[in-house]
Specification:
- A hairpin with an 8-residue loop joins strand 4 and strand 5.
- The strands form 2 sheets. The chain has a 3-stranded antiparallel sheet, with no helix packed on it.
- About 60% of the residues lie in helices and about 20% in strands.
- The protein has 1 helix and 5 strands.
- The protein is α+β, with helices and mostly antiparallel strands.
- It folds into 2 domains: about 50 residues; about 80 residues.
- Bound molecules: zinc ion.
Length: about 130
């Protein structure tokens, strides 16, 4: 396996790699390079290109941050809507309950009043029939 030597464009340290390798890392500055070979490659006509890994990572982090923020906002809005709906439904349910209770109490009072009147009438009739004897 042929060994190729190049200098790191960044720190000028020696870069050694075997022909065929496509990724190398500078042992001195840790920068990563992609190796590009000439099509009709006879003697080492090799180019090395810095891989913008750091830039890509930073870009990914930025994208992830935006996604996280959007995700948080969506979840927050969703939760807020659910809470609002729950409150509205609870208030409505309580109002229904109060109204029904009021109606039942009113109807009970009416029944009691009616019973009272009927009782009074029956008593009056009894007293009248007693007098007539
Ligand atoms: Zn280097």
């Amino acid at each position: 396996m042929k060994i190729v030597e190049k200098k790191c464009p960044n720190c000028h340290a020696n870069l050694e790699f075997k022909v065929g390798e496509s990724d190398i890392r500078c042992p001195n500055c840790r920068r990563e390079y992609a190796v590009e070979y000439d099509k009709d490659f006879v003697d080492p006509e090799v180019q090395i290109k810095a891989k913008d890994i750091q830039l890509k990572v930073l870009d990914d982090i930025a994208k992830a941050r935006v996604f996280n923020r959007v995700f948080f906002v969506v979840v927050f809005i969703f939760t807020a809507v659910i809470i609002c709906i729950s409150i509205v439904m609870a208030v409505r349910g309580y109002e229904d309950y109060r109204q029904t209770k009021e109606e039942m109490e009113q109807s009970q009072q009416e029944h009691e009043a009616q019973f009272e009147r009927m009782w009074q009438e029956a008593e009056d009739q009894y007293n009248k029939s007693k007098e007539s004897f």
